[in-house]
Write a structure and sequence with these properties.
Layout (H helix, E strand, L loop, with lengths): L9 H9 L7 H11 L4 E4 L6 H13 L4 H5 L13 E4 L3 H14 L7 E4 L5 H9 L4 E4 L1 H9 L10 E4 L2 H6 L3 H8 L7 E6 L4 H10 L4 E4 L10 E7 L5 H11 L5 E4 L3 H13 L4 E4 L5 H12 L5 E4 L1 H4 L9 E4 L6 H8 L9 E7 L4 H11 L5 E2 L20 H16 L9
Parallel strand pairs: 1-6, 1-7, 2-4, 2-5, 3-4, 5-6, 8-13, 8-14, 9-11, 9-12, 10-11, 12-13
Helix pairs in contact: 2-3, 3-5, 7-9, 15-16
Bound molecules: adenosine monophosphate (AMP).
Adenosine monophosphate binds next to helix 3.
Length: 424
């Protein structure tokens, strides 16, 4: 199957040729014709599968057709202002930036203008860009609503609404914002819902957002990208950092993305690894957008050897040829495991995902095994065997209240304005 056979027009085919995209990925093969056919879509695909092009390419092609308003007022078209015709919503700033970059890349040879809107930075440059007139806006929900309330953004001409990483949007508590946005977009529109995982909540959301959607599921149910080798090392919690620094140093790994559960944990680990001789930085929601971008760039440029991130901060990072992901701590939310390891093994490359699991995390590993349907082989790293005489730490079972609190902690991490409760 080629991009031409999928029905894409020549300017897009030429751009894809320049980008050296030789064949469409499975999500592209399935989603492009559905979107070009103007259907609503509910698609399960992880980051790294080519899903951004899967929705952006057909969306751009549809936008090349004149809008109803243009057709109705073609004689006076020079006088009317440009309306926003497509809205792409993402849960995080980083993903918004990444998607916008893709939109710009794919629309390179088309007379379509796009803008980016996300929080944590000054409104004015975003307002100035939007006021010049744009066809497409890529936004996080909160900042979009700010711009709507200021009258900068009007959503009443939206023809296509895209939700990227919808599961994460729900996870981060964006339902209120989504409902407010829905009140402002026309009911007659095309809606595309992309999610890395399908859950009852996602099905329920798709019922309110889409109309008779086509459903596409790429990969097996809630599984990680197959190019990722997953390895589990059982290790005492107080030996994890030493083991991690040792592995990176002795195996001469570069560009290692490390996950912790909390912002404080990320900062502390980065500091200690740097003391161990592994140059490491941390990114999380407490850091300014500028600081996060700078640290990410240093990591991409190879100046920083390891980057420690919280789940929310890492969402949407697209780092080409990322070979190593380390779960320093397992996530409380098993689905985050899939998101985390999706950072490696991207676009067909091989990746290695290592999880350092202490005895108090065994119940989290069981949850991961349940949703991925994998029984992991657990092993010890020579020289870092766990001390079996140590009294086993009892895992803290999480009540519904505690789970809600954690969801809130994760949501606060995105805004960078919240405190994270220290766990024992
Ligand atoms: P995404 O899942 O959209 O984040 O894409 C992951 C990576 O795959 C990005 O770096 C894209 O540039 C790249 N990509 C997307 N589609 C293709 C394709 N058909 N061939 C080669 N690379 C692709």
């Amino acid at each position: 199957m080629s991009f031409l056979e999928l029905g894409l027009v020549e300017p897009l085919i030429n751009t894809l040729r320049d980008l050296e995209y030789k064949v469409p990925t499975p999500i592209q093969v399935q989603a492009i014709p559905v979107i070009l056919g103007s259907h609503d879509l509910l698609a399960r695909a992880q980051t790294g599968t080519g899903k951004t092009a899967a929705f952006t390419l057909p969306l751009l092609q549809l936008l090349m057709q004149p809008s109803q308003q243009d057709t109705a007022t073609s004689t006076t078209s020079a006088l009317i202002e440009k309306n926003i015709r497509a809205l792409i919503l993402t849960p995080t700033r980083e993903l918004a930036q990444q998607v916008h970059k893709s939109v710009e890349r794919y629309s390179r040879d088309l007379p379509l203008v796009s803008a980016l809107a996300y929080g944590g930075v000054s409104l004015n440059p975003q307002i100035a860009a939007i006021e010049k007139g744009v066809d497409i806006i890529v936004a996080t929900p909160g900042r979009l609503l700010d711009l709507v309330s200021k009258g900068t953004v009007k959503l009443d001409e939206i023809e296509c609404l895209v939700f990227d990483e919808a599961d994460r949007m729900l996870d981060m508590g964006f339902m209120g914002e989504i409902n407010r946005i829905l009140k402002r977009v026309p009911t007659q529109r095309q809606t595309l819902l992309f999610s890395a995982t399908f859950s009852d909540e996602i099905y329920a959301l798709s019922k309110t957002l889409t109309s008779s959607p086509k459903i596409i599921e790429i990969g097996e149910k809630n599984t990680a990208a197959t190019e990722v080798e997953q390895v589990i090392y059982n290790v005492d919690a107080d030996k994890k950092r030493e083991l991690l620094s040792y592995m990176i140093g002795s195996k001469n790994w570069h560009q290692v993305l490390v996950f912790t559960r909390t912002k404080q944990g990320a900062d502390l680990l980065a500091k200690e690894m740097t003391k161990d001789g592994v140059k490491t930085k941390a990114i999380h929601g407490d850091k300014s957008q500028g600081a996060r971008e700078k640290e990410l760039q240093e990591f991409k440029d190879g100046n920083t050897r390891a980057l420690v991130a919280t789940d929310v901060a890492a969402r949407g990072l697209d780092i080409e040829q990322l070979n190593y992901v380390v779960n320093f701590e397992l996530p409380y939310n098993a689905e985050d495991y899939i998101h985390r390891i999706g950072r490696t093994g991207r676009a067909g490359q091989k990746g290695l995902a290592i999880s350092l699991v202490s005895s108090d995390e065994n119940y989290l590993l069981e949850e991961i095994e349940a949703i991925t349907d994998i029984k992991f082989m657990q092993q010890w790293y020579p020289g870092f065997e766990p001390d079996l005489n140590k009294p086993e730490k009892r895992p803290r079972k999480h009540s519904k209240g505690a789970q809600k609190k954690r969801a809130r902690e994760r949501a606060l991490d995105k805004s960078g304005s919240g405190r994270v409760t220290k766990r024992k």
